[in-house]
Amino acid sequence: MSAKILAIDTATEMCSVALMVGDEIFSRNEIAPRDHTKKILPMVDEVLKEAGVSLSELDALAYGRGPGSFTGVRIGIGIAQGLALGADLPMIGISTLAAMAQGAYRRHGVEHVACAIDARMSEVYWGQYQRQQDGSWITVDDECVIPPSDLVAHLRHDNNTWAQVGTGWDAYQVEMAEVKLERTTTDVLYPESRDIVFLAKFELENGNTVPVEESSPVYLRDNVTWKKLPGRE
């Protein structure tokens, strides 16, 4: 399948856009924590012009659905919805944590990845991923927001070596040092849209798209609060 997919992500300090056209990927990345709204649309224009395609020619629009900065996630999904609505495109939400796992594989060839993004408030956004033979990823346990000190009890011991990615490892060095995983360090700190668009291709091939009005962010912290309400499951 020769897919044309645009992906954008502003969920972290990284402002990122990528366009997949068949086997080619055109991308732009810049660490710009306060300038996402200024930079993201010019980046979109640049990759579309470089590839010589228009929004209306695309098959889908993918976005980093979170977790990440509340403001950043909202900016990304809002811009993605506007672009998709104007071009009548289906949307695909991709986990920013899973995108970082793909980024670690792309750079270092690792197939077991432990992601920790600094979530502020003495917590991290956490997820563990294992690569499959077809290039997709499975979540080893559910993504969550958790204090680093609680990860020791949360994790199950295994014999794999996990590549660590994300800003959480450095933000909470003392607490994360207690995490009992065999692990290696990497230079992957943020999700990039070139990895989001790669994962979105699998979703498109499997028909896992949603209309603009059904696209939604994933904050994780809201989910934790919701579960604590009396009478909710």
Characterization of this structure:
The chain is of the alpha/beta class and 233 residues long. The protein has helices at 36-51, 70-87, 96-108, 151-154, 168-171, 173-176, 193-205, 221-228, and strands at 4-9, 14-21, 24-31, 60-66, 91-95, 112-118, 124-131, 137-146, 161-165, 182-185. It folds into two domains: 4-96 and 191-228, Nucleotidyltransferase, domain 5; 97-185, ATPase, nucleotide binding domain (Nucleotidyltransferase, domain 5, 2-Layer Sandwich), CATH 3.30.420.40. It is built from eight helices and ten strands. It has a five-stranded mixed β-sheet with strand order 3-2-1-4-5, with helices on both faces. A five-stranded mixed β-sheet has the order 8-7-6-9-10. Strand 4 (60-66), helix 2 (70-87) and strand 5 form a beta-alpha-beta unit. Helix 3 (96-108) packs across helix 7. The protein is globular and about 50 Å long. 45% of the residues are buried. GO terms for molecular function: tRNA N(6)-L-threonylcarbamoyladenine synthase activity.
Q: Would you list the SSEs in sequence order as H and E? A: EEEHEHEHEEEHEHHEHH
Principal-axes geometry comes out as globular
SS content category: alpha/beta
Distance between the termini: 40 Å
In CATH terms, the superfamily of the largest domain is ATPase, nucleotide binding domain
CATH second-level architecture of the largest domain: 2-Layer Sandwich
**Count of helical regions:** 8
Q: State the total count of DSSP E strands.
A: 10
Strand order of the largest sheet: 3-2-1-4-5
Rg? 17 Å
User: What is the overall pLDDT average?
Assistant: 93
CATH class category name of the largest domain: Alpha Beta
DSSP strand content: 25-35%
Protein name: tRNA threonylcarbamoyladenosine biosynthesis protein TsaB
Family: Belongs to the KAE1 / TsaD family. TsaB subfamily.
Pfam families: TsaD
Keywords: Acyltransferase, Transferase
